[in-house]
Amino acid sequence: MSEIQIRLPDGNTLAVPKGSTVLDVAGKIGKGLAKAAFAGRVDGHLVDLRTPLESDAAIEIVTKRDPEAGEVIRHSAEHVMADAVKRLFPNAQVDVGRTDHSEKFQYDFLMDHPFTPEDLEDIEKEMWKILAEKSEFVREVMSRGEAEAFFAARGEELKVSRVGDIPDDQEITIFRHGEFADLCRGPHVQRADQIGAFNIIDSAGAYWRGDESQVKLQRIYGTAFATEKELQDHLARLEEAKRRDHRRVGAELQLYFTDSIAPGSPFYLPKGMILYNGLVDFVRSLYPKYGFTEVMTPQLFRTEIFKTSGHYELFRDDMFMLEGDEDEELGVKPMNCPGHCHLFSTQKHSYRELPIRYAEFSRLHRNERSGTLTGLSRVRSMAQDDAHIFCEPEQVGAELDSFFDLTKEIYRALGLEDPEIAVSTRPEEFSGDTTDWDVAGKRLADAVERAGYECSIKPGEAAFYGPKIECDFRDVMGRAWTLATLQVDVSMPGRFGLRYVGRDDKLHQPAMLHRAILGSLERFIALYTEMTGGNFPFWLAPVQVALLPITDRHLAYAGRVQAALEGAGIRVFLDTRSEKLGYKIREAEIQKVPLMLVVGDQEEADGTVTPRYRRGSKQSNEAVALDQMVEALVADVRERRVSRPED
To answer: If 225 and its partner were Cys, which of 59, 230, 371, 528 is the partner (CB 3.0–4.6 Å)?
Structure first.
């Protein structure tokens, strides 16, 4: 039997027979490692331990200390949960689980009744019994016919249909543990008892294949970890995430809401519009400094423009289409770049004008599937702090550096720190020349390093028209969300035939950059609400000051204080209710008002106010002259301080 060479993380090589599994390699390294193994990485890709090795490869063994071990544990717990359901409800049909096990697992079942809380308790108990059996997970390869016959014999009609979804060139694998078996690619742990702790989180309804016209299924969510401590830490983060959920906070603070009457299209309430406009005005205020000019392009275009840009072919299913007169097909714009390209093409341009930087905040619409719509984080109607830069190829480096300067200035004012920066590279479906893609990707990575960041790579995750810089931030659950992006477009300038007159009096094709700092305003507001818990910086808070008179006889003086603050542009809520001061303070804290100003006899006599800051820390309870307080607050807004020293 021929041998293959395995490269180990320490640089050594190991010769093993061709067809050996990752677990065989672990055993060759050491029996202790083999026993502790959860999965493997082959040339950087997470794989099942039972995966046969057919050629030379770099191998890493994943143990419970590895961050990716959690994904394998949750995937395996998913199967254990389905096994428990089948044991308790033998007539249930098993559909599919999740593809993303970074946080949780799930399975859909065809049942004769929705799962009750009592059912979920019984399922958890049955899962513990299965773990105690310590069954090994076994990988088996089947032909399409064998797999269809296997599941048909078990009465799993849904699964037979799922077998038909597998492409002809893809291997069909079944994973077993004990009597349970399911169609699956893995990876899975060696033994069920490697799942150290789990929790069934919830159940919900779901439709077969996500189609509301199909049969309704019952879905169970859960999570699992290697240890009980990891599980409890995760559940604590989950509770904190629920407390910060932007849908909950948005309702409590009366900022925004969504309604089935307009699916995926948010309703902004007056306070929400202050927040929305505050972000827009802030970004807009920096345009002169960074050389952007604002434009507005139409909402409706003939679809020829999207055919030219390439979106019609690759993005059409995500667009809203309309019929105009005489078989005219119109599209509601889902992005601004085609309109900006057309705008550039309508005039002659010289190199002396470049760079030209178009910015736009108009509404965009995308036909997101109804099952994916989530508050403000996934919507159909949105706006972006969007811009497109047309420049000479030699100017691209300077524009990339300017992008990072602008990004840092905006994020500093918002209190956003430590972004994770990556470059997304060419996807399977793309437009343009591969050499142009590679050159542009290298320029982006170099710019990231010049800006002082480490640069990671997201293989194949760019849009079809060019590589992209992505600035990610982590939420309370540790999930990465992309905010700022910058793309070098290697496609659209050529597709639109964009030209400028160069220094040699000849026509040249401009370089084109796509730029956003906040990204979708809706998604940014959702994420920022959760990151701050609604405790927005003073300059951005919808209500900046809660003015609290101690008794009704102090209302007249409070009114004069209110007039002074509002005259300086400070947003004030005067609490005129005949309630005790403690109650008013608690109400202001619940509403996340950054600053409370208390006024009573002494304040009225001295022309002062007594400040009380939102977080309740460093409370001096010392009165401050009204004009001094107004001056300080105006400076806070002007300088967009993230927090005051006392906060």
So the answer is: 230
Q: Do 79 and 168 sit in the same domain of this protein?
A: yes
- Which of the residues 74, 177, 468, 515 is marked catalytic? 468
In this structure, what are the phi and psi dihedrals at residue 136, rounded to the nearest 5 degrees? -85, 145
Q: What is the pTM of this model?
A: 0.83
Domain of 18: which CATH number? 3.10.20.30
The verdict on whether 436 is a catalytic residue reads no
**Does the annotation mark 386 as catalytic?**
yes
Q: Residue 75 sits in which domain range? A: 69-242
**Tens digits of residue pLDDT in 323-335:** 988 889 999 999 9
Residue 303 counted as domain residue: yes
Residue 162 confidence (pLDDT): 96
Cα–Cα distances in angstroms (integers) from residue 29 to residues 33, 49, 508, in the given order: 7, 14, 59
Known catalytic membership, residue 384 = yes
Is residue 28 in some structural domain?
yes
User: Is 316 labeled as catalytic in the residue annotation?
Assistant: no
The β-bridge relationship of strands 180-183 and 172-177 is antiparallel
* Class of residue 610 by CB neighbours under 10 A (exposed 0-12, middle 13-18, buried 19+): buried
Q: Is 337 a catalytic residue?
A: yes
Whether residues 527 and 591 share a domain: the answer is no
Active site residue 458: no
Annotated catalytic residue, options 104, 139, 188, 388: 388
The yes-or-no answer on residue 514 being catalytic is yes
Per residue in 509-555, pLDDT (tens digit) is 999 999 999 999 999 999 999 999 999 999 999 999 999 999 999 99
Is 317 domain-assigned? yes
Active-site residue (options: 337, 341, 391, 471)? 337
Kindly tell me the sign of the dihedral angle through the C-alpha atoms of 350, 355, 361, 365: positive
